[in-house]
Amino acid sequence: MGDARRRLILWDIDGTLVRPGPAGRALYACAFERATGRPMRVQSPTHGRLDPDIFRDTLVANDLDPSAHPFPAFASALAAVYLAGADVLRREGTALPGAAGALEALAAEPRAVQSVLTGNVEPVARIKLSTFGLDRHLDLAIAAYGDDAAVRADLVEVARRRAATRLGDVFDPGGTVLVGDSVRDVAAGRAAGVPVIAVATGRDGPGELRAAGAGVVLPGLADTGAVVRAIRECAAG
Prior knowledge:
The chain is of the alpha/beta class. It folds into two domains: about 5-20 and about 95-235, HAD superfamily/HAD-like (Rossmann fold, 3-Layer(aba) Sandwich); about 20-90.
């Protein structure tokens, strides 16, 4: 990369590295019923959102009072359900094409540090990544998870601070790159002042991602060379 500084690359998980498939909703519904004692009739939109926000809105959509159902209890239930359901996730979900290759290629870059910035709580994030063998090249101790901040953009600073403490380097906004698939990922990166590479592998199309302000939009991660070049260029900017 352009100079001697280390670069922090923060990957979104759902829709960028992993697609949970039907298992995602089924496992969520199971955890919801465990935590609330009521079956989940409706799930709030999840794309690009933080787990606490999804849970709050799902409670409201199911005519339940959020103040009566604290998020930590649901997060514990969700982690337990994902741990027990890892085989189902493996059968019904998938790693996105090229995800493993991109992570491996960037691991060979001597100044690249890779982690995640995700709306998932930590245990669920770890299970999703390990289920599809994508955790090998990610330093998950410096990641930012869905319950680490109330606003997605603030997760960038959480990850930068953890990386600085753990690695003894300063990762300024210019030395940090966010990779995601939703307009919310793009908005978070722009609000935090970091370059964003968007991949059109989720629900938001290339035009929407460009309009949101993504610096680079790729069709996906299958072209490893294109992914590495894009991150090098963003990191050098």
